[in-house]
Amino acid sequence: MACCEPLRRSRPRAGLAIGTVALARELRPDLVLMDVQMPRLDGVSATRQVVADRLADVLVLTTFDLDEYVFGALRAGACGFLLKETEARDLLVAVRTVAGGEGLIAPSVTRRLIAEFAAKPVREPSADPAVLDVLTRREREVLSCLGEGLSNAEIAGRLDMAEATVKTHVSRLPGKLELRSRVQAAVLAQELGV
Q1: CATH of residue 68
Q2: For the chain, does the N or the C end have fewer beta carbons within 10 angstroms?
C-alpha cells in the first residue's frame, strides 16, 4: 500500500492540502490520510480533488467532530472519517479497512449520521433510475448490498461469490455510475431503493 503521508512532513506547512493533491498525482498512493483544516485549500476541497481525479481513496482524520466536516468529507467522496483521538492500533485497522475497499466512520460520529439520515423526510429519488441500466444483474446485486452497508466479506457471503470478485465489482461500480466512491454508490442505492 502506497501512502504519501511521510513525504508530506518534509514539505512546508503553507499549501499543505495543495501539496497533498500534487503528491497524490505524483505518487498515486492507494490511500491518502487527509486532515480537514489546512491552510489555503481545506481538506474537504482537497479530498474532492483527489477523489474526482481518481488519485486515491481518502481517509479523513481530524480533531473536529463537527457535522459540517463529517458531511462535507463524505459528500466529497471520502471513504472514511476518524477523529484524531483514535488509538494508534485503531488507526492502523482503519487504514487497512479503507485501503481494502471498505468504508469506515468513527463510532462516535456514526450515531449522528444515522439520526440525520432518519430525520430527513422520505423524498423522491434525485437520481434517475435509468442510470442503473449500465449495470449487469450481478452488479445490481452488489450495489444493493452496498446500499445496505455490507462489507466486501459480507457481500461475498450473501451472494456466494469470492471476495476478490466482490472487490472487482465494487471498484467498477463508481466508474460505471459516474460516481467518485463506494460511499456515493451506497448512497445512490439508498436513494433509488435498490
Answers
A1: 3.40.50.2300
A2: N
